[in-house]
Amino acid sequence: MKKTPKERKLQITRRSALAGIGAVAGAGAAASAAPGFVRYAQAASSEPIRLGMQLHRTGIGASYGRWYDRVTTAAAKLINEDGGINGRPLEIVIEDDGTDPKRGAEVVEKFATQHKVDATFGTLFSHVVIGSSPRAGELKMPYIVVSEGHHVASGRLNRYVLQPGITDVKSQVSSMAPWVASNLGKKVTMIYPDFAFGHDHRDYFSAAIAAQGGEVLELIPIPPTESSFTRYFPRIPSATDVLYHVMVGPGVLTFVKELGQHFGSNRPEIFGFIDSLEAVDLATPQLEFLEGTHFWEGNPRYAQANQSAHDKFYRESVGVDDNGASVNDAKDVSTYSHMFGCWETLFVIKQAMELSGYGDGSAADKQAFIEAMESLESFDEGRDHPQGAKIFNGKIHQAFGHQNISRVENGRLNVVHRTSIEDGMYEPEADYTQMSF
Question: What is the DSSP string of 335-394?
């Protein structure tokens, strides 16, 4: 029977695999692959591996984009200092998508047809991920996102889209709902952005709190481009035990300030996702009312008393101080809770490309790269994964990890609870490995 190009490529690489087995794991990688997955030999080429970074440089995601860029630059520098990927230098090509779904799809096409990149990564905002992913699938372009929406794990997208470096909303809220119900209250009002990311919070936290015997009294969706919020607050029922808030975009500081003005000292318990304060200095006037409130953090902004050596190294590498701000400007506060995902994702890309013996960027190369990433099962905490250990489910292309609940105390965030990985795991809803390329 005549072999396909992919089968011929795998036959050739298998013959030479013995020379390359064991040489693919980078320093501190500590990843495991599914039993039986073949490690292919290293590609012989001095041409760079080119990754297209779809960056929210402008639009409502600009504060994230600024720090995603800095983290990516630092991680790429470290990878190149360690010898690159398969002995080839890593090159990052950046295009601004304006945090816009239509423009995002155009950027993906530009990466494929003009820049000829090997893979695309870095997209955060869920509506941009959803708007860009179909084009990535049509172009057969690996699209590795650093988002949080449940859209990847749900099976809604395609085989070319993966999220190995950051957890999703369903996992996050499922792991924290028991703590919220036990420590803050069970009657909840939710305020969230009215697009896919916010809808995930609405749907999955509502289900998670109900599983704890609680209920959501009111759902208050707000346009993510809103600039004033006072007109929404009268909708908060007086019986509310816990106000759950997650907002995004340039209006987050106004949102938090107006929330404080509305409640004054007579407020319910408040549980927020740090998205509502990402890139915002907690010492900003009128944020004093947040004292004693709680936040979810993917990665704690403030260096904790039990800070790991890996977090310390990561902070120094990306230029962030112990308060989560730029070492060059204390007012330039990072998006620390999310941006680690770029760092960790780049190291996963490196692992999967070395595992697959990624070569000249052919269709077979890209497919083997995706299959290699699907075979990964876990990542140990370390230099490459400073946020913590993770479990990766290749069937749903999604990572699971630890979450942090932090309390505002004396103007800083102190972690009071860290979930286990198992707390946020759920039954897979799809299997991308059964989808065709």
Answer: -HHHHHHHHHHHHHHHHHHHHHT--S--HHHHHHHHHHHHHEEEE-SSSS-TT--EEEET
What per-residue string of b and e applies to 354-365 under the rule 16 or more CB within 10 Å gives b?
bbbbbbebeebb
Structure tokens given for 226? 């809103």
Question: Is residue 219 packed enough to be buried (19+ CB in 10 Å), middle (13-18) or exposed (0-12)?
Answer: middle
CA distance 433 to 437: 9
**Which run of H or of E encompasses 255?**
helix 252-263
Predicted TM-score (pTM) of the model is: 0.90
pLDDT at 249: 83
| Domain count within the chain | 2
**Residues 105 and 180 placed together within one structural domain of the fold:** no
Instruction: Judge whether 315 lies within some domain.
Output: no
Shared domain for 277 and 343, answered yes or no, is no
How does pLDDT run across 143-165, given as a tens digit for each residue? 999 999 999 999 999 999 999 99
Of 318, 340, 350, 357, the C-alpha closest to 404 is 340
218 bridge partner residues: 189
Tell whether 287 and 415 lie within a shared domain. yes
**Does position 238 have pLDDT exceeding 50, yes or no?**
yes
Helices (H), 59-168: 62-81, 101-110, 126-139
Domain hosting 245: range is: 169-297+403-424
Closest C-alpha to 208, from 141, 271, 254, 164: 271
HSE (CB half, 13 Å, CA atoms) of 437?
A: 13
Full DSSP string of 30-70: -EEE-TTPPPPPPP---SPEEEEEEE--SSTTHHHHHHHHH
For tokens 């449940």, name the residue.
Answer: 150
First to last CA, the chain: 21
Q: Are strands 143-144 and 119-121 parallel, antiparallel or unpaired?
A: parallel
- The Cα 223–Cα 296 span in angstroms is 22
Q: pLDDT digits over 291-314, tens only?
A: 999 999 999 999 999 999 999 999
Contact 277/252 with Cβ under 8 angstroms? Answer: yes
Pairing mode, strands 161-162 and 398-401: unpaired
d(CA 372, CA 204): 30
Residue 144 bridge partners (DSSP): 121, 162
Q: Catalogue the long-range contacts made by 300-303 (C-beta closer than 8 Å, 24 or more residues apart).
A: 300/336, 300/337, 300/404, 300/406, 300/413, 300/415, 301/274, 301/333, 301/334, 301/336, 301/337, 301/413, 302/412, 302/413, 302/414
Rounded CA-CA distance 48/76 in Å is: 12
- The amino acid present at 164, given as its one-letter code, is P
Q: Is residue 284 located within the same domain as residue 415?
A: yes
